[in-house]
Amino acid sequence: MKIAKSTYLFIFTLVLAGWYLFIGIYLNKLGYYNQESLFYIEKTKIVFEGLGNRLKVMGLTAPLLPFYSTFIFSFIDSHLAPVIASALGTAGFFYLISRSFLIRVKDDFYLIMVALLFALHPGIIYMACSGKAIYLVVIFLYLFFLNLLKFYRSNTTFHVSVASMCLVTLIFCDYRFIWLTLFFIPLVLSITLASLNLGEKESIFRLFMSFNSPSLRRKLINKTFAIYIILFILPVVSLICYKLLNQTHASDYNYFMESPLATWNVLVDKLNYDTAVTAVNYQLPELSILVSLRVIYFCPLILFGMYLLRESTYQVLTVITLFAFVEFLHIKYDKLFLTYQYYLIFLFVALLCIVFKVHTIKNKLAVKVGLALVIILQLYTGYTFLTNSLITDERRFITTFNRLNPNTDQSESKEIAAYINGLPEGTHILMDDAVSYPIVAFTNDVKKLTLPYQLDTFLSAIETPYKYDDYILIATPKNPFTGYTQLNDKYIPEIRRLNSGVNYKRAYETDGWILYKVVTLQ
User: Fold this and answer.
1) 150 near 318, Cβ under 8 Å?
2) Which residue windows are coiled coil (predicted)?
């Protein structure tokens, strides 16, 4: 009995998922963790094992959907949950793209190229095996653009509605994608023009014809406004509701994106930038005029994809919005580096361009040779881009992956956590997990810890720690996050001054942390 191609595709997807899991788990055993996955691990531990009101942690931890995707797999192993989620999510994304090629292109060559990319591209392996939520961002951005291109072809507003839902989901995976809507405001006019039944093909002449005919002008305005409503109303309403939820439970509309207790990237992004610009071997930060060139260097496949779309002006403009988007992000967040996901999205949008247009090219051989060469170049640039990344987590991943040597980045956090794990049951430790969440992630029993999510208890413990806790974890001046927590080297002298009858003794010490024991109460 002949086995269908879709069955082979499903089997390869399972093999790919196993490949990602093997790499991710092996790197985890070597000690590789990143700040994002540790943050989700810590919040998951609080939700499942913590004491007190955990509703705020469960509902306001951001980005929300990446946290929930980790949350789902925590019953298997809390430390491996982010890796499992990213591995399975990336394998599922491969199946989604490959099915598109199988249905639309019907040529095994392109399936092989996609399979090679997903199996060997360092950036995709990083997306699948690091435990980061990049896979969710690229999946929903891919679906967003897929439905827009379907709308161009079918002129059915159902696809705009689906695109709107994908945009909402994308924003809840990474809030910064809300700015993508800015560049679709002028593009909607082009989309509407393309949907009008006019004999003229060029956009400028279609616009001229529409404005010079009262009936066409009315139709253009009505349809443009309708697409605005369908595309943008759901994201706007969803964000308003979520901000109101933040105001209700945290008394801050922007708590989910500005508080280090709610999101991991507030402090980590700043630290990455400060580390790079103050390093002895100074690295040139990203320059605005060069961001698009960096994109093309990382993803030459996007030029191949745009070449295929060259006869459809509005489709090319749709892809160009992504270039404008990353340029805007670099200008707006000028003290932060663009992370890998903002470059990786171009790779999958390029594949989407190929899905939609490659079957219309007559010279099949030239296209296949050109695509194979670009894919080989893509594998090389993906590796060099990670190796030379300005972001520590990204460089650490490729270094650990290449050398297969134990990664010691989190050894200090594990060391402190091991000491806390060895303390007697019933011991209580005052900690600020805005900066110490890696330590909490490696702690076996979070019930020992007094953390900010226990708001009233934590505030009282800050003022009179000897009444609530047996130990206090302090960030030393060498700790890069010492300026972002009240529990720093200034805290113990101040609390001693307020109550001289209490003595604090150093119980355990590393370069970045000191664990003080409350010894005497007079």
Assistant:
1) no
2) none
Reported as a single tens digit per residue, the pLDDT across 499-509 is: 777 888 999 99
Crossing angle for the helix pair 108-120 and 122-129, nearest 10 degrees? 60
Give every CB contact of residue 100 below 8 A, 6+ residues apart in sequence: 146, 352, 355
- CA dist list (Å): 183 to 147, 187, 319: 17, 7, 11
Rounded Cα–Cα distance for residues 136 and 86 (Å): 8
pLDDT in the model for residue 153: 82
Q: What is the C-alpha R_g of the chain? A: 26
Mean per-residue pLDDT, 341-360 = 92
The yes-or-no verdict on residue 284 having pLDDT over 60 is: no
Q: Residue 280: its pLDDT value, please? A: 46
CB burial string 312-337: b at 16+ within 10 A, e below = bbbbbbbbebbbbbbbbbbeeeeebb
- Tell the residue number behind the tokens 């598109």, with chain if given: 100
Identity of the residue numbered 169: T
What are the structure tokens assigned to 428, written together?
């209580």
Helices and strands of the chain, counted as H and E runs: 24, 5
| Contact assessment for residue 150 and residue 159, using Cβ atoms and an 8 Å cutoff | yes
What letter would DSSP give residue 406?
Answer: P
What number is the average pLDDT over the span 94-115?
Answer: 91
Q: Is this structure's pTM higher than 0.90?
A: yes
Give residue 23's pLDDT.
96
**Cα of 340 vs its chain's centroid, Å:** 9
CA distance 498 to 477: 22
User: Chain-centre distance of CA 182, in angstroms?
Assistant: 20
Res 200 pLDDT > 90: no
**Pair of tokens at residue 7:** 């069955």
SS3 content of the chain, % helix, strand, coil (to 5): 70, 5, 25
| Token pair of 125 as six digits | 């392996």
Counting every residue written for the chain, the total comes to 522
**Range 263-270 contact pairs with CB under 8 angstroms and sequence separation of 24 or more:** 263/39, 263/61, 263/62, 263/63, 264/35, 264/36, 264/38, 264/39, 264/40, 264/437, 265/36, 267/434, 267/435, 267/481, 267/484, 268/35, 268/36, 269/333, 269/336, 269/337, 270/335, 270/336
Q: Are 32 and 396 in contact (CB under 8 A)?
A: yes
Amino acid of residue 230: I
| 491 vs 507: CA distance, rounded Å | 16
